[in-house]
């Protein structure tokens, strides 16, 4: 066919450029077999590791004062709507808190419930100054509750060595703080063991 010589010359020139280490005889041998393998080394792309977004450290949170409640916000009346929302949340969680509800079932649900907005009272304590403190839980940490009282005072009450009472719709539950030293976010997955007697 017309142009076959030019095509042959082009292929020969191309193969010489592509495989400079091969001799002419070897190239011709490859052509007669009609099998040409061009050597090409592709660069391996490095997989970029996805960087996990890092949260703030405890020190950074303290410096930014993320969990501090401003003095002008420390008023009991401001958080009463939060308490009303909490009561509705507990009623839904306990299916209405009906009179025939089993106390141990309600207690088990309260142990894992979110307590932000609950009104609690310190009923027993190894430190007498804590006894009688009543207010709405604004913040719960692993070891302390931050409670706003009716006198608009923000109290930091440790869980250790304190017993808290919590009342809703006539149902009173007691929380032994010494056995309750868990972050609020982790408490829902924690299994609480029933014990006959619990010390402060």
TrEMBL record:
InterPro entries to which the protein is assigned, alphabetical: RNase_P/MRP_Rpp29-subunit, RNase_P/MRP_Rpp29_sf, Rof/RNase_P-like, Rpp29/RNP1
Keywords: Nucleus, Phosphoprotein, tRNA processing
Gene3D superfamilies, per the entry: Ribonuclease P/MRP, subunit p29 (2.30.30.210)
GO molecular function, one term: ribonuclease P RNA binding
Main location: nucleus
Any Gene Ontology biological process: rRNA processing
Record's keyword annotation contains Lyase: no
Subcellular localization: Nucleus, Nucleolus
GO cellular component: nucleolus; ribonuclease MRP complex; ribonuclease P complex
Family the UniProt entry places it in: Belongs to the eukaryotic/archaeal RNase P protein component 1 family.
Protein role: Component of ribonuclease P, a ribonucleoprotein complex that generates mature tRNA molecules by cleaving their 5'-ends.
PANTHER family, A to Z: RIBONUCLEASE P PROTEIN SUBUNIT P29 (PTHR13348:SF0), RIBONUCLEASE P SUBUNIT P29 (PTHR13348)
Subunit structure: Component of nuclear RNase P and RNase MRP ribonucleoproteins. RNase P consists of a catalytic RNA moiety and 10 different protein chains; POP1, POP4, POP5, POP7, RPP14, RPP21, RPP25, RPP30, RPP38 and RPP40. Within the RNase P complex, POP1, POP7 and RPP25 form the 'finger' subcomplex, POP5, RPP14, RPP40 and homodimeric RPP30 form the 'palm' subcomplex, and RPP21, POP4 and RPP38 form the 'wrist' subcomplex. All subunits of the RNase P complex interact with the catalytic RNA. Several subunits of RNase P are also part of the RNase MRP complex.
Listed name of the protein: Ribonuclease P protein subunit p29
Native species: Lophotis ruficrista
């Amino acid at each position: 066919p017309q142009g076959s010589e030019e095509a042959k010359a082009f292929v020969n020139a191309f193969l010489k450029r592509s495989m400079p280490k091969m001799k002419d005889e070897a190239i011709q041998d490859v052509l007669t077999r009609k099998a040409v393998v061009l050597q090409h080394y592709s660069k391996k792309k490095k997989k970029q590791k996805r960087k996990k977004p890092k949260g703030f450290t405890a020190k950074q949170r303290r410096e930014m004062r993320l969990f501090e409640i401003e003095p002008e916000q420390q008023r009991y009346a401001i958080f009463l709507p939060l308490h009303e929302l909490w009561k509705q949340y507990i009623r839904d969680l306990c299916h209405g808190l009906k009179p025939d509800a089993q106390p141990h079932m309600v207690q088990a649900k309260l142990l894992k419930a979110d307590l932000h907005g609950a009104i609690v009272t310190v009923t027993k304590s190894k430190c007498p100054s804590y006894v009688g403190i009543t207010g709405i839980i604004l913040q719960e940490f692993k070891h302390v509750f931050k409670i706003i009282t009716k006198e608009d005072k923000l109290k930091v009450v440790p869980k250790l060595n304190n017993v808290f009472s919590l009342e809703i719709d006539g149902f009173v539950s007691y929380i032994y703080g010494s056995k309750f030293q868990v972050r609020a976010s982790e408490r829902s997955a924690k299994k609480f063991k029933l014990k006959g007697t619990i010390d402060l």
